[in-house]
Design a protein that fits this description.
The chain is an alpha+beta fold. Helices cover 32% and strands 37% of the residues. The protein has one domain (3-140): Nuclear Transport Factor 2, Chain: A (Roll). The longest helix has 14 residues, at 3-16. The chain is globular and about 40 Å long.
Length: 141
Amino acid sequence: MSNRRALLDGLFGDLERLDFDAVAARCASDCVYEDVPYADATVTGPEAIRAKLALGLGSLEKLPTTIHELAEMGDTVLVERTEVWHHPSGERATLRVAAVFKFRGDQLVLWRDYWDARTLLDQQPKAWLPIIPRLVEQTAA
């Protein structure tokens, strides 16, 4: 197993446990975290990343992730993964994600996730992050 793969396994383990402080500790002070469907929500730095994760994932029970494919070139790693969002209500949301991770040493400096917003939002319970508009409701209007 490569060092980068081990770092990502640690990151996804922290995410599964919803340990946002541990995730933030893996990020360099200039790390950029971008969810491509919501580019305006891009954040920089460990504290901003921790806060973003807590906002979107903090109400979950856990977030197990399965890595399907991983390709490395230098300090850059491409990952295809599936996340399963476990809500306290028992509801689940399954999301396929492609991502780019860039490292400087053992620290993450870029985390860019590509995923389909409608796929995620259509599976979420209505109580989850009510400030995010439902794409279904927008397209029905």
